[in-house]
Amino acid sequence: MSEELNSKRISLFPALPAIVNQVLESLSSRSVNDYEIIGIIESEPGMSTALLGMINHALFGKITLNSLSELIDMLGLPRLRFAVLAYGFSRFCNENYANFGHTSGLSAKITWEHAISVAYFGVEIAKIVKYPRLEEVLLAGLIHDVGRQVIMINRPEEYSELLGSVYGIVVDIVAQERTKIGLSHDQVGAMLVGHWQLPESIASVIEYHHNCEAAEDHQILVHIITLANQLAVSQGTSFELCDKVDKDSNVSVHLLELSGDDIDELVKNFHQNAIAFRKAFNF
User: Fold this and answer.
1) What is the pLDDT confidence band of residue 9, given thresholds at 50, 70 and 90?
2) What is the pLDDT of residue 102?
3) Per-domain residue ranges for the chain?
4) Which fold has domain 16-281?
């Protein structure tokens, strides 16, 4: 499908909160320092508390970091970009579904709750495989389906009808989108990457989380989110269902060198801990 045809179907691209763009712009400066970044974040009411709460509860499950200084000491300014983007996208999603009508708003809300579930599975998988940047995995899980949110903004009634038609059944959602909408959420998400200037690793996840074997770069991260998405969908967190993860033949399970016991433990812990994890994004 040509880029020109896509642009005719998708013309409205959402913006991140202005404060997020301000922080990201400052982080791109070689001369910026910790105190400047802290000052910008603290100028936005509630951002500091929300950012710390999100990182503490989503990554550690408890209060570990008590200040922005501690957060920056742990991550460093380059990796802080992932955390700020996660905050910005979370805020966008929380505000997004509230602005729709009943049906489309519900679709956006369920899509966001699914993304949080994928983020949960992604972070827990990353801990097992010792992936070094949990904040990157958190963002990747939250934003992997951003294309769905963009389609909803552009074609809310049509997309809500599609999502309703696949509710509770095993289906190839990408194929359904391309047939009924003319393009899929991974394609639309890839279109948004440039608008939000997302890191290359996150762009790879957005584009390839339904086709992980085609990813040439950032393969570990792509496979973490691919598997996290499969586990989340298999546990009924999305509109569509998918088959249970086959521990013996699943490509991502094999590449990440996970065992069947690892998968069983991930699913068990999800049902025990997912509600507490979701609280990290109530801001």
Assistant:
1) confident
2) 60
3) 16-281
4) Hypothetical protein af1432 (1.10.3210)
SS3 sequence, the chain? Answer: CCHHHHHHHCCCCCCCCHHHHHHHHHHCCCCCCHHHHHHHHHCCCCHHHHHHHHHHHHHHCCCCCCCHHHHHHHHCHHHHHHHHHHHHHHHHHHHHHHHCCHHHHHHHHHHHHHHHHHHHHHHHHHHHHCCCCHHHHHHHHHHCCHHHHHHHHHCHHHHHHHHHHCCCCECCHHHHHHHHCCCCHHHHHHHHHHHHCCCHHHHHHHHHCCCHHHCCCCHHHHHHHHHHHHHHHHCCCCCCECCCCCCCCCHHHHHCCCCHHHHHHHHHHHHHHHHHHHHHHCC
Q: pLDDT tens digits for 146-161?
A: 999 999 989 988 998 9
Q: Taking residues 154-183, report their average pLDDT.
A: 93
Is-contact 68 42, C-beta < 8 A? yes
Q: How confident is the model at residue 101 (pLDDT cuts 50, 70, 90)?
A: low
- Whole-prediction pTM: 0.94
- In this prediction, residue 2 carries a pLDDT of 42
The answer to whether 278 and 116 are in contact (CB under 8 A) is yes
